[in-house]
């Protein structure tokens, strides 16, 4: 057991301390506290530890609302022991530190609260009840959540950050023989629900009786069964999201980010826009409405099901084309056609291709890469194609800062940066960086 003075916060939900010259990354602590910590992992360069006793507490410390949170318990939440304002301040500090260390950018960051859409009388307590997609693990039929950095499962009968629509399914209070994982999905805008089951041998999965209507996915859907997707509504447009496809998990995040991207890029009628890692077409849809019929939006996505969803979701927009393939490969060879005399051809895959003058420039670009970020090669291609503005949506401050450094090397400057608390009680934060030519 170590007695530690806790320093600042680090990326990944840890606080930093030192013991005999070695760095110690401590969970369940807060900056300024003195704690007794149990070492959970040793490496050549640092230790990992859990604060198991608080000797001197921070004024920001609160009693965790969830009985399954704490040292050695569920690993899903990092900051249940901190007040919500303190959580946002910690996340802001992480973003500032990563920007400074990895990109040489000094910027004051404020993490904004994401409004929770009010649906009737169901309003969860602040910071809880927001996660519309929850992946549970199953061990011998019993449901739980993974412990931190472990394959071990913490059995739970309720998840407090799960959306009420997920909890109504009663997943945690039932047994799931033969399954290795159960994902509960709900749409906060339409009420659609879906359960996705995983298992090594799907024939052995036994589905319990559920208290609410759900759609079940066990391998390929059976003919005539309900389609395995949920519908989400943003800016008056309905988006189909199949299975475990990507969608913002906070009920207010998709609309907030869609509005923020449009505000950041300021698209104009007739613009050519590029939507990289476009998923099911959220940003492509809102951009297409702004640039109008004389403009063009090209979405790029590698996941086959997401591409099919995007083409379906945007099938009525003749100024949108969705291209399937790795982003780094597609944008390396992209050639845009600006409309000439209103001439346009409809492609067989459901998007619209313009033809006429060939150009090598997109007026505006939005990218929303996975946690690993875009990387040097993609950034280089974007800077060759982008004209006025770039909007970079990121859920990882470290890879965002790294990539902003690459953009800086190629003459692009960070104009604005917004951060959103789209994942309360966890260390995760959503950022939107807007870049302009230097």
- Measured as a percent range, the helix fraction is 10-25%
Rg, rounded, reads 23 Å
Tally of alpha and pi helices: 8
Oligomer: single chain
List how many beta strands DSSP finds: 24
Q: What is the rounded distance between the termini?
A: 51 Å
Total count of domains: 3
By secondary-structure content and strand pairing, the structural class works out as alpha/beta
The major beta sheet can be summarized as: 8 strands, mixed
CATH fold label of the largest domain: Rossmann fold
Under CATH at level 1, the class of the largest domain stands as Alpha Beta
Binned strand content: 25-35%
Low-confidence stretches: 221-226, 337-359
Furnish the topology, listing elements before pairings.
Elements: E1 2-5, E2 9-10, E3 14-19, E4 22-27, E5 34-42, E6 46-56, H1 84-103, E7 111-113, E8 133-139, E9 142-146, E10 153-155, H2 164-167, E11 181-186, E12 193-198, E13 215-217, E14 229-234, E15 237-242, H3 253-265, E16 272-276, H4 282-291, E17 296-301, H5 304-313, E18 320-324, H6 327-333, E19 336-346, E20 352-359, E21 362-367, H7 376-385, E22 386-394, H8 397-409, E23 412-421, E24 430-437
Parallel strand pairs: 4-6, 7-23, 12-13, 16-17, 16-21, 17-18, 21-22
Antiparallel strand pairs: 1-5, 2-3, 3-4, 5-6, 8-9, 8-11, 9-10, 11-12, 14-15, 19-20, 22-24, 23-24
Would you give an account of this structure?
The chain has 438 residues and is an alpha/beta fold. It has three domains: 2-75, Nucleic acid-binding proteins (OB fold (Dihydrolipoamide Acetyltransferase, E2P)); 133-230, no CATH class; 250-437, Vaccinia Virus protein VP39 (Rossmann fold, 3-Layer(aba) Sandwich), CATH 3.40.50. It contains eight helices and 24 strands. It has helices at residues 84-103, 164-167, 253-265, 282-291, 304-313, 327-333, 376-385, 397-409; strands at 2-5, 9-10, 14-19, 22-27, 34-42, 46-56, 111-113, 133-139, 142-146, 153-155, 181-186, 193-198, 215-217, 229-234, 237-242, 272-276, 296-301, 320-324, 336-346, 352-359, 362-367, 386-394, 412-421, 430-437. The strands form five sheets. Strands 7-23-24-22-21-16-17-18 form an eight-stranded mixed beta sheet, sandwiched between helices. Strands 1-5-6-4-3-2 form a six-stranded mixed beta sheet. Helix 6 (327-333) packs parallel to helix 7. It is globular, with a radius of gyration of 23 Å. The chain starts with a strand and ends with a strand.
């Amino acid at each position: 057991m170590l007695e530690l003075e806790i320093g600042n916060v680090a990326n990944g939900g840890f606080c930093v301390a030192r013991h005999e010259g070695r760095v110690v990354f401590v969970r369940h602590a807060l900056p300024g506290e003195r704690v007794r910590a149990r070492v959970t992992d040793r490496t050549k360069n640092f230790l990992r530890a859990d604060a198991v006793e608080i000797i001197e507490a921070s004024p920001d410390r609160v009693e965790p609302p969830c009985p399954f949170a704490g040292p050695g318990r569920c690993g899903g939440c990092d900051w249940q022991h901190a007040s919500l304002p303190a959580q946002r301040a910690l996340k802001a500090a992480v973003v500032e530190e990563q920007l400074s260390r990895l990109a040489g950018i000094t910027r004051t960051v404020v993490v904004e609260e994401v409004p929770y859409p009010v649906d009737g009388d169901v309003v969860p307590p602040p910071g809880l009840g927001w996660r519309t997609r929850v992946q549970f693990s199953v061990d011998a039929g019993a449901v739980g959540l993974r412990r931190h950095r472990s394959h071990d499962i913490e059995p739970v009968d309720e998840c407090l950050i799960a959306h009420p629509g997920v909890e109504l399914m009663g997943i945690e209070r039932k047994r799931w023989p033969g399954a290795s994982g159960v994902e509960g999905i709900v749409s906060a805008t339409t009420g659609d629900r879906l359960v996705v089951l995983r298992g090594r041998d799907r024939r052995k999965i036994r589905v319990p009786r559920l208290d609410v209507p759900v759609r079940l996915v066990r391998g390929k859907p059976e003919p005539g069964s309900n389609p395995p997707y949920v519908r989400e509504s943003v800016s008056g447009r309905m988006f189909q999201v199949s299975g475990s496809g990507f969608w913002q998990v906070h009920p207010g995040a998709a609309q907030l980010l869609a509005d923020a991207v449009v505000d950041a890029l300021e698209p104009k009628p007739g613009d050519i826009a590029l939507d990289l890692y476009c998923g099911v077409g959220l940003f492509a849809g809102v951009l297409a409405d702004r640039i109008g019929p004389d403009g063009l939006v090209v979405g790029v996505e590698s996941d086959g099901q997401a591409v099919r969803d995007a083409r379906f979701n945007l099938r009525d927009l003749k100024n949108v084309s969705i291209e399937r393939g790795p982003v780094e490969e597609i944008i390396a060879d992209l050639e845009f056609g600006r409309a000439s005399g209103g001439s346009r051809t409809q492609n067989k895959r459901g998007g619209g291709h313009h033809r006429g003058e060939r150009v090598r420039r997109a007026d505006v670009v939005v990218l929303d890469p996975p946690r690993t970020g875009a990387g040097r090669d993609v950034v280089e291609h974007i800077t060759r194609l982008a004209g006025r503005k770039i909007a970079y949506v990121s859920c990882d401050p470290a890879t965002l800062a790294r990539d902003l450094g690459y953009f800086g090397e190629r003459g692009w400057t960070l104009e604005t940066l917004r951060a959103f608390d789209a994942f309360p009680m966890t260390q995760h934060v959503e950022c939107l960086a807007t870049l302009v030519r230097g």
